[in-house]
Structure formats: structure tokens, C-alpha cells
Write a structure and sequence with these properties.
Helix content: 55-70%
Shape: elongated
Order of helices and strands: HHHH
Number of helices: 4
Number of domains: 2
Strand content: under 5%
Number of strands: 0
Length: 87
């Protein structure tokens, strides 16, 4: 894992992650999943272009929920309910 000097009092999460190599990032993700901080189903190991576009779209919706109409929000909630029952 990244090596930080003892005289540093604060390391931001982004500093920590930026100091990790790809193997360490994978270990970090595994640790976060084991500890229940992230859901294993949300981590896509080798995303294709459709996965990337979908994730970006979902992130944009999450950041802008207050801009949705009630109908749009209901539509998204209904999709979620339908998928929950299918699993």
C-alpha cells in the first residue's frame, strides 16, 4: 500500500487512491466489499462501453434528482421496483 511520511497528519482519500498502483486498487476494492462499504454487484470488473455510459447516466441522475419532474422520478422508482422483484 502507499507509503506516507510520519509528519503528514492528513491524507485525503483521493491522495491515498492516487498513490496506489492497480494491484493495490484491486485490494482496496476487495477490502471495501468485504467490509460492506460497497456492494459487489455495483463493481463491474471489465466494463464495456454500454456499462460506462449507463453508469455515467445513473450518476448524473443521482446528482440532479431535484431537477426531475415527479413523473420522471416515479418512472425511475417503478423501474427499480420491477427489477427488485425480478431478482
Amino acid at each position: 500500500m502507499p507509503d506516507f511520511q510520519a509528519d503528514e497528519f492528513y491524507v485525503s482519500p483521493s491522495e491515498f487512491v492516487d498513490s496506489c498502483n492497480s494491484k493495490e486498487i484491486k485490494q482496496l476494492i476487495e477490502c471495501l466489499m468485504e467490509d460492506g462499504h460497497i456492494n459487489q454487484n455495483t463493481v463491474i470488473q471489465n466494463p464495456n462501453v454500454h456499462d460506462v455510459i449507463f453508469e455515467e447516466s445513473i450518476d448524473q441522475i443521482k446528482k440532479s434528482r431535484d431537477l426531475l419532474t415527479l413523473e420522471e422520478e416515479d418512472y425511475i422508482n417503478n423501474i427499480s421496483k420491477r427489477i427488485k422483484y425480478l431478482r
